[in-house]
Each structure stands twice: as structure tokens, then as C-alpha cells.
Specification:
This protein has 82 residues and is mainly beta. The protein has one domain. Helices cover 6% and strands 26% of the residues. Strands 4-3-2-1-5 form a five-stranded antiparallel sheet, with no helix packed on it. The longest helix is centred in the last third of the chain and has 5 residues. It is globular. The model has no long low-confidence stretch (mean pLDDT 87).
């Protein structure tokens, strides 16, 4: 379990469905593919923007316990594109 997001580290959402409080347009649903993402910006530890997303800062309070930090090698994209 992650205690807070940190800029420059990789995280993966382990949940399988969107949660209450997420953006109603589905703009936060991109994390449901459970792939690692690099944290680009952080605010208050639970609000984050990831490189693969647009510049939106999302609040991940609901389901924050479903995030895990990833330690990846340089070929991580090849591994997760299978």
C-alpha cells in the first residue's frame, strides 16, 4: 500500500472498477488497465498527475489503498504490452 504519491516514482492501480467520487465522465478510468505509470505532479500526497494522462490533477482518495509502488526496469513497456 502507498502512503503518498511522490513525483518521479512509478505506481500501479490494482483495483478492477471505478469508485465513487471518481470523475463522472470516466476520465480517471485509464488506470483500470493496472499498468505502471510515472507520477508527474503531486499535491497533498493523494492528488496526482501521471505522464500517460493529460495534465489533469486527480484526487485518488477513494481507492488510495489499492495503489502500489512499482519498481520497473527499462523494458517495462514491452512487458506490459504483451
Amino acid at each position: 500500500m502507498v502512503k503518498k504519491f511522490e513525483k518521479g516514482k512509478y505506481y500501479r492501480y490494482t483495483g478492477k472498477e471505478r469508485l465513487l467520487g471518481w470523475n463522472s465522465d470516466g476520465l480517471m478510468d485509464y488506470v483500470l488497465d493496472n499498468k505502471p505509470r510515472k507520477c508527474f505532479k503531486v499535491s497533498f500526497g493523494t492528488d496526482a498527475t501521471f505522464l500517460e494522462n493529460d495534465d489533469n490533477m486527480w484526487t485518488w482518495n477513494n481507492g488510495f489503498d489499492l495503489w502500489e509502488e512499482c519498481f520497473i526496469n527499462t523494458d517495462w513497456k514491452k512487458e506490459f504490452q504483451r
